């Protein structure tokens, strides 16, 4: 049985349900749709499915949907998760080499039944993160992007980056990882399992989702006069070693003398305790 969690309240969602039904009926697969109707509903559905013993849970949507599902399932190693990228950003799917906005290819992978073990971030406060977690400028950018949704995906995020940079001042963070302690005046810190944020921006080009490590990327403060020249390098992953430091880590704690907001898989959390570790091979994911 394939349990499919999807938001069918939009035209895109309704069309997806019809396409998925056609694909699965043709293959004679047993499946059931579970429709979300409010924020965090996917988390509740995933929890109930896993607790009732269901083994195959499929999320259809974007990084936010996947984030809810991995936070809903209590015993992640006890289920097989399918991530069908059908949202606006789809950053995790790109890093995982999964099809994006192609339902037929995505479900062919799932129906073939092959899985692989991948990593995830586990926070001390109980939250989990699949793709990337960050503090600093990326939180401000997401806040602005969510408030102005005339564009979708990468163009919306890029517009927000440009707007935020006009008045951005930077942050002071203290970061502790694997026995080291460093203090930075920086633009942002990003802890990445995946490669991309913001619909395809290569914040952590060296990340691998199953290497048992996290990539800590620290974007340093640069002169405003250099923004126009350096922004394309950030967007394409050429910032590492130029105006960004990178560390391979297993445990990370970030503190500041100001209240902290964080983004986990694009979801914003206020007053956040940023203390996490890598869980190696903690998720069984349907793969090619």
Write a structural description.
This protein has 288 residues and is α+β, with helices and mostly antiparallel strands. The protein is 30% helix and 33% strand. It has eight helices and 15 strands. The chain has helices at 11-26, 41-51, 63-72, 91-96, 103-112, 137-147, 153-165, 227-235, and strands at 2-6, 31-35, 56-61, 80-85, 115-123, 128-129, 132-136, 171-177, 180-192, 214-220, 244-249, 251-255, 262-264, 267-269, 274-286. A hairpin with a 2-residue loop joins strand 13 and strand 14 (267-269). Helix 2 packs across helix 3 (63-72). The longest helix is centred in the N-terminal third of the chain and has 16 residues, at 11-26. The two termini are 20 Å apart.
* Structural class computed from helices and strand pairing: alpha+beta
Shape: globular
User: What value does the Rg take, in angstroms?
Assistant: 19 Å
Mean model confidence by pLDDT: 93
Write the H/E string, N to C: EHEHEHEHHEEEHHEEEHEEEEE
Counted by DSSP, the helix tally is 8
| Low-confidence parts | none
What is the beta-strand fraction?
A: 25-35%
Main sheet attributes: strand count, strand direction, barrel closure: 15 strands, mixed
| Spatial gap, N to C terminus | 20 Å
Percent helix range: 25-40%
How many strand units? 15
Secondary-structure blueprint of this entry?
Blueprint: E1 2-6, H1 11-26, E2 31-35, H2 41-51, E3 56-61, H3 63-72, E4 80-85, H4 91-96, H5 103-112, E5 115-123, E6 128-129, E7 132-136, H6 137-147, H7 153-165, E8 171-177, E9 180-192, E10 214-220, H8 227-235, E11 244-249, E12 251-255, E13 262-264, E14 267-269, E15 274-286
Parallel strand pairs: 1-2, 1-3, 3-4, 4-15
Antiparallel strand pairs: 5-6, 5-15, 7-9, 7-13, 8-9, 8-12, 9-10, 10-11, 12-15, 13-14
């Amino acid at each position: 049985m394939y349990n499919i969690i999807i938001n069918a309240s939009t035209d895109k969602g309704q069309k997806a349900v019809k396409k998925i039904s056609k694909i699965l009926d043709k293959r004679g697969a047993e499946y059931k749709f579970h429709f979300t109707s409010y924020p965090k509903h996917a988390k509740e559905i995933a929890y109930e499915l896993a607790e009732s013993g269901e083994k195959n849970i499929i999320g259809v949507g974007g990084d936010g949907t996947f984030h809810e599902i991995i936070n809903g399932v209590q015993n992640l190693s006890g289920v097989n998760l399918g991530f069908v990228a059908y949202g606006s950003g789809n950053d995790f799917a790109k890093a995982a080499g999964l099809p994006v906005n192609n339902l037929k290819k995505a479900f062919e992978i799932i129906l073939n039944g092959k899985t692989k073990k991948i990593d995830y971030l586990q926070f001390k406060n109980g939250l989990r993160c699949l793709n990337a977690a960050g503090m600093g400028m990326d939180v401000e950018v997401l806040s602005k992007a969510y408030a102005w949704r005339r564009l979708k995906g990468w163009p919306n995020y890029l517009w927000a980056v440009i707007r935020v940079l006009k008045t951005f001042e930077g942050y002071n963070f203290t970061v502790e990882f694997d026995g080291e302690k460093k203090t930075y005046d920086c633009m942002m810190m990003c802890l990445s399992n995946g490669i991309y944020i913001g619909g395809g921006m290569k914040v952590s080009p060296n990340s691998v989702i199953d290497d048992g490590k996290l990539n800590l990327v620290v974007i340093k403060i640069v002169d405003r006069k250099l923004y126009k020249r350096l922004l394309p390098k950030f967007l394409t992953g050429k910032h590492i070693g130029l105006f960004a430091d990178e560390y391979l880590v297993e445990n990370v704690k970030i503190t500041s003398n100001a209240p902290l907001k964080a983004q986990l898989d694009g979801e914003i959390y206020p007053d956040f305790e940023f203390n996490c570790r890598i869980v190696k091979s903690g998720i069984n994911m349907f793969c090619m």
